[in-house]
Amino acid sequence: MAQPEPRAVLVLVSQSFVDSMRAFLEDARFRLEERAPDHDGPLPPNVACFVLAGGAEPDGLDWIERHRDASDPIYCIGANADHRVALGAVARGARDYFALPGDLDLLRRTLDRLSREARAGIGAEQFACAERQALGLDTIIGRSPPLQAILSHATRVAAVKEVTVLLGGETGTGKELLARAIHFHSPRARAPFVEINCAAIPATLLESELFGHERGAFTGAIAAKPGLFELADGGTVFLDEIGHLPLDLQPKLLRALESREVRRVGGQAAKHFDVRVIGATHMDLAQAVASGTFREDLFYRLNVVHLVLPPLRDRGADVELLAEAFVTRLAAQHELPAPLITAEIRAALRAHPWPGNIRELRNAIERALVLSPPGQLDLAELLLPRPVRAVAGGLPFPAPLGTIIRAAALQTLERVDGNKSEAARRLGISRPRLQRILDGDTE
């Protein structure tokens, strides 16, 4: 991969130092754009701007003031070493003022630092782009209306930098995947995504993990350690299984979310943080509030945008799409030929209620892929139990009405060899209506 190249704009208010500045910027491997002082268009994003004002300091300061709202830093380079000129430059909006030749070494060090920071930022953006392509909202598999509704809301939420999100849904529905997708589609994508499972860490250690600790705060604390809110500064903290957060820790988390500050265990100073918080739980937090195991004020603080992922049994044909994706991905991972999914297996996948949701489906596909003969997928190796009861014709019973409707549509489609127009005619519905039922919309 080519080395990322930072950018700089050189504003030629004066011709002094032009040659030397070009050389300095080229040594620091900046991609350079030169601009005349009468070019008052907006500065491009993600650039460092250097105003050459040697001998024309008042004009340079006027230019800086006209562009002081730029999001990226502006530096002024002049020849007047008077400290009042430097103060005036900073007051007008400059990040710093360099009087040459006296500040030459300081200028070189600043350029080196800016180059390193710019390259780190470009690298972070490249990483965020790669993660967005691999784990973004567009990569979440499924066309069912319940899932598409959630993804539509998630897209809107991602664009808003600050809003807190609470993800609900049964275990295995993909809450962590959705949290990562929201992060990498957000303005925070270049900053860290830090996750913690509140149910997997002992209560005595969870406070230290979240907020950090100072040296000597407790036995074994031989060095200071930042907490996850500090480590994620600028990015996203994902609190998985937040319903298991100990009751005595809940007011501390609430205070941190309200004040945007944390105090390390054993520490005195408050440390500010800037993160988006995404919580996730399979529990009914409203019920937990009613039973007294979860604080009502923390629940309302977290429940700003509540997205509930649908269980796999309510996602219709998505189970087949997911199975096909898992077969392709896992066959490549295990260096096995990818088998076709037969009609018999598809029917079994549709009939199973999938209490473990997507996680259960993935594990079943992987097991069958590994244990079946190469290039095949053996139905027996999926280990799917047969329905306990069925009415005449093989319809699932007892089952939700939507499941029965879809099963009837599928059986009709099988009897007419997949001819959707004929199946729709026999069912007495339109072809588009039949397609919606097959996709899981049985309303």
State the end-to-end CA separation: 51 Å
Q: What average pLDDT do the residues reach? A: 85
Q: Tell me the CATH architecture of the largest domain.
A: 3-Layer(aba) Sandwich
CATH superfamily of the largest domain: P-loop containing nucleotide triphosphate hydrolases
- Could you give a short account of the major beta sheet? 5 strands, parallel
Number of domains: 4
Molecular structure report:
The chain has four domains: 7-124, Response regulator (Rossmann fold), CATH 3.40.50; 141-308, Rossmann fold (3-Layer(aba) Sandwich), CATH 3.40.50; 311-386, Helicase, Ruva Protein, domain 3, CATH 1.10.8; 389-443, Arc Repressor Mutant, subunit A. The protein contains 17 helices and 14 strands. Strand 3 (47-52), helix 2 and strand 4 form a beta-alpha-beta unit. Residues 387-392 have low confidence and may be disordered. The protein has helices at 18-27, 57-66, 83-92, 104-135, 145-159, 175-184, 203-211, 228-231, 250-259, 285-291, 296-302, 318-333, 343-351, 357-371, 401-415, 420-427, 431-438, and strands spanning 7-12, 31-35, 47-52, 74-78, 96-99, 165-168, 193-197, 212-213, 225-226, 236-240, 261-263, 270-272, 276-280, 305-308. It starts with 6 loop residues before the first strand and ends in a 5-residue tail after the last helix. Helix 5 runs parallel beside helix 6 (175-184) and helix 15 (401-415) packs across helix 16. The strands form four sheets. The protein has a five-stranded parallel beta sheet, sandwiched between helices. The longest helix is centred in the N-terminal third of the chain and has 32 residues, at 104-135. It is an alpha/beta fold and 443 residues long.
